[in-house]
Structure prediction request, 232 residues.
Amino acid sequence: MVISGQKYNINRDWPCPKRKTPVKIVYLPPVNRGLEPNLHLMIQLVLFGKPGAGKGTQAEFLKETYGLKHLSTGDLFRHHIKNGTPLGLLAQSYMDQGALVPDQVTIDMLEEAVDQTPEAKGFIFDGFPRTTAQAEALDAFLAGKNMAVSATIALEAHDEELLVRLLERGKISGRPDDQDETKIRTRFDEYNQKTAPLRNYYQAQNKFYSVDGIGAIEEVKQRIAEVIANLG
Ligand code: ADP
Prediction:
């Protein structure tokens, strides 16, 4: 394969000792980033960060730039709620309190969404995993498809900034969980207790990348693009 006059080997093995079979390398074109053309494997990104850290905003950029499918468990739950499905009714009872929806319900929904998109070049997991059980389930699920999480990108921001952002978002979106400070603080607590430990989980796999989530959206995009450009 020749891109910009450079020759690439597209049948390289994934340099992961656990992987037994070679996977096809997918060329993901860089768009308007001023980056050198780069080859990536099928790429599975986990976007990590507290509520309001900017995962949804940056997922849009990643989706367009790298041609990945964006899967947000929050959006999936809200879709079910809007359509009045049994899953939506169940999820709503937790979401309204700022609590996490039970693991197995969330895992099943996420896996179904992945299976419904067999043509995807890779996924951006936004809001998933949020617990160790979910992270282990994701690893097992992807391994069953000869895939693995490529990187977990954490958007870092402090609580008081996040609180302001979420209350602003609540005014526009009407999301009930963004309009009440107590619910927002419950979500932060849920994150600290159940989601924050995933930092160690992914660090142990050498897949954790921390990105400063404070600043202009464009600046944060550039920081994320740099992380991706440097992925093995
Ligand atoms: P935010 O990241 O701003 O909290 P989301 O839209 O990602 O917003 O999630 C909204 C709510 O949906 C969460 O507070 C939780 O109740 C539920 N939810 C989303 N993803 C998960 C998950 N992976 N596990 C359990 N509950 C989830």
Summary: Residues 45 and 154 are 10 Å apart (CA to CA). DSSP finds nine helices and nine strands in the chain. The mean pLDDT is 87. The two ends are 19 Å apart (CA to CA).
